[in-house]
Each structure stands twice: as C-alpha cells, then as structure tokens.
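Below: protein 1.
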Amino acid sequence: MLFEIIKSVILGVVEGITEWLPISSTGHMILVNEFIGNEGFTASDLFLYVIQLGAILAVVTVFFRKLNPFAPSKTAEEKTDTWRMWFKVIAACIPAAVIGLLFNDYMDMIENWQVVSAMLILYGIAFIVVENRKKMPRVNGMDEMTYKTALLIGLFQVLSIVPGTSRSGATILGAVILGCSRETAAEFSFFLAIPVMFGVSLLKIATYDGALAGGDIAVLLIGMAVAYAVSLASIRFLMNYVRRHDFKAFGWYRIALGAAVILYFTVKTVL
C-alpha cells in the first residue's frame, strides 16, 4: 500500500507537469511506470486517466472567472462573450467525441513504446517547422476566433488519440497553424481539456471491469490531489512562457525524449 501511495504521488507530479505542456503525458507515464514498476492499481488505465480529473480542476481554478458566464463582476457583454466561448469549445469537442469513441479500444491496443516514440519525434519536428515560419497571428483572443477555426482545432485534437501525440500538443499546434497567437492557442487547449478529459475519465470508470477497494480509491484521490497542485503551477508557467517565447524548445524536448525511449527499449530488448 505504501509503495502504491508513493507511485501515486510520483505519477500525480508527472501528470500535473506533462498534461498541459505539449510534451505527451502518455510518453512520460510509460517511462515512469517502466522505471518504478508497471504493476498494481497505479498502472491501470482507470488510475492513469481518472487522475486527470485533478488536472482539470486546476484549469477551472486558474481560469474560473473567465470560464464562468454567471460571474456577477462581468458585464452583460462579457457574459455573452463567455457563452460564445463555451459554444466554440463544444463545437471543437464534437470531432473528438465522435471519432474518439469509435477508435478508443483500438488506440488502447497500440499504446506501445514504438508508437509513442514515433509520435514524440514527429510532433517535435512539426513544432519546430511551424515555429520557423514566423507568421503573425490573426487570432489574438477567444473573441476573435470563429466557429470554423474552433472546429478545425477540434479536428487537430482528434490526432491526440494516437498515444504519444499529446492532446495539448495537437491542439496548440493546430491552433498556431490556423493563425492563433501562442497565448490563445494554449488557453483554448486548456478549455478544450475540460469536457474532453472529463468525458474520457467517465468512460474509463464506466468500462472498468475490476473492483475498486477502499485503498485504491485513497490512492486515486492522492494522485488527483497532487496532479491538481502541480497543474496549477504548470498552467501558470506555460501561460507566462508563451508570452515571451515560442514552442521550439518543447519540439526539441519531444525529439530528445522520443530518441531516449527508442534507445532505452532497444537496449532493454537486446540485453
């Protein structure tokens, strides 16, 4: 039980950092579980997905006023803008809801280090190539984003069902390609996570075929609490970072991590 709690804390830290940065939480989770033991409840899909609820709560905390259409401090126009923003989020979630449900079981089957490392490297290169274009953004705020752009970002989000892609990575990359500023891309990616990750977590709970013991629930709650606390710092870090820097550093990091995954498992197989 103590070891499961320690693993839960470690995985909560990893989830809180990697869920919001465009570097693939799946890739990091695979490596962490490989090094600290890929067994027990903390290695189950239920734990690895439901722990994300803590991360979602962090988004709601950081952006509560912006997300809340009923905030008494908002003017009538600001409340209307908030509702429009939510409608854009919903529009962007439709592709993932439809396609994600269709391919959910298949993607679970191909969640291996070969696919994860390939996606880490591929999207790392994509970030570097896109940032080297140096094009001025056309969309500098959620109010400037059209429903068409939101829907197209949602199509990019569908790519994240492939393990190793990174949900935030796919949506941020797509938003930047479509002309959004880095800050708007990151923010919209955070907001998209709320219904998508909540829905995925509920799906994993509904389809879980095991029995949850009291200890498992305690371990899960600890992981969620840690993911929440770390996510608060990660979200604020990324929003401050993108105001002054581009995403190329994350691209190089993804390439290095993908190469490290290939090297590690290749050596392990040979030995």
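Below: protein 2.
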Amino acid sequence: MFLSKFSRDVAIDLGTSNTLVFVQGEGIVLNEPSIVSIHEGDHSILAVGNEAKAMIGRTPPEIRVIQPLKNGVIADFEMTEQMLTHFISRTQRWLRTILKPQVVIGVPAGITQVERRAVRDSARHAGAREVYLVEEPVAAAIGAGLPVQEPGGNLIVDIGGGTTEVAVISLAGVIFCTSVRVAGDEMSAAILQHIKKHYNLLIGERHAEELKLTLGSACPGDGPTRSVEVKGRDLADGIPKTITLNEEEIREALREPVTTILETIRTCLERTPPELAADLVDSGIVITGGGSLLRGLDRLLVQEMQLPVKVAPDPMSCVVLGLGRMLDEVDLLRRVAGPA
C-alpha cells in the first residue's frame, strides 16, 4: 500500500452498457458507453466510448462497432483490454509512466473463475499494478450508504445493463445472491421486438433505448398518458414509416422482463435466513443501477413485496462510488476482496 501514495489508484465499474471510472482523491472522472469501434482490415481501434456509440448503425462495411461485454462479463477479451487501456490511460496522464495504478473492479456476484481471470488479465495488460475484484452487489450497497458492515440484513437490487443482481448482505459479506441476465438491455430489446411484431416496423437499438427512457414504466402513473411518434423501416415494403406509440404499449412490452426481475427478488427473499428476513421488514429494499430509474418500479415493488422500497441516491453511480470508497478504506477492501 506504500506505493499507492504515489499513484492515482482507480476504481472501475466495468458494466455491460457503461464503464465508470473513479480516481482516488478526484471522484468519478469518466462515464462512457462500453463500446469500441474497429477497422476490420487491421483491427485497429478507431473510437472508444461516446465516439464509438455515435457510430452505431452508421458505419460502412469495413468498420465494426463492438460491445465487448455481454451480461456483465467479458465476451471479447482483446477489445475489453483495449477499452480498459484507453480509459485507464485517460485517468493517469504523466503518472502512468512512473507508477502503475492499483485498480479495484466491480464484477457480477457468482462469476466463474475463468471470467474472474479474464477481468484480472485485461486490467493488468491495460496497465494495472495490482487488481482487486469486488462483487457488484456489495459495492452498490456501500455506494448507496447501507450499513453493510453491521450484523443486519440489507437487500440490494442492482439492475444494470446486462444483469440484475439481488443480494442480501450482512457483515460486509453476501449471505445469498441470485442474478438473472435480464436488465436494461433486455428491456430495450423487448420494446424493439414489440414494435416489430405488432407494427411490422424495424427500429434501431438506440431508438428502442430512447423509447424506454421516454415512455417506459412498470405500472400506471397518475398523469395523462403520454405518446410519441416513432420512425422506422416498414418490413413489408421497405420504405420509412411513422407510427404513434403510447406508454401503455411500452409498459406491455416491458411486462416480461419486469416480471422476471420481480421473480428474481422473490426467490432471494424466499432463500433469506429468517433472522435477516426479519431485519428486512424495517430496512426494506434498496434498488440501484440504471434500471432502477424505470418509472413506477419502486411502487410496483412495494405492491408485490409488501416491503419498504427506496431508490438509491445517484443509482447509476452506486457501484463505482462504493468501489471508490474502498480505495481509501484498506481494511474494508481486504475484507470484501482479495487480490484477483
């Protein structure tokens, strides 16, 4: 730990949709899509993050846009390494030439040893001196301000881009955790498929994501029903077409992924030891991640689970904030993670 006094140690939330980077002493310095664009001829990197995302659906044949992480784990080792190298180098400046940083990375709970090794190797090849892996539910709970080191039950639901993880945490450890590969990306895909099935209209992934943010909801609200115009390509005649969708249709499209998330939470509650289950009557459920921002999800959870439900402050940053806190609290880091 002596060396860390002279380096800019880094915490990384390596997400399916977005990568967030926290630098010790500075806070969150980077929040960009986990996307890389390459030239097919020589596999050279053309763009990373926001610049690469802007290319989706707009590239010539010789340029390919890649999402190197799927369902919270590495799907393309080489591209993940390139992406991490790019992001880490942007945080280190001149210090990277003197001393490599210590890196703490959030990983899904229950990933395999092979997947853990892939994350570790990617980070080390990208320039990390030492790598620690921390389970994302624990990091999210710490970032949300939950008293995870105390002997009491804390139920965290982290709805990211690729996975939803539900965990009961006590004494800085995971008592029980279950996850499902249904989250924000699956919600966007469900909207895309709904429009394709019911309107014979093809829209892009980015457009589906925008519809999720604009009209998406888990249960009816109090205000008037909103609607928007949707433009795409008619699959019958191949020409551009415009339709009008309202939030009730989008809610129906989201019913299946939302139901899957509810069932995952119910499974976790059923497997929770009775002493900790009693704690949850008072502490309730805390939801984090981008998926927690789906309108009405907290109200639906209250109805279904009969427990208090709270959306964490700054839910999209909870994991990286929790990881960042561990950079300063060495004892906590050693308690929840070992060197990868």
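Residues 77-92 form the longest helix (16 residues).
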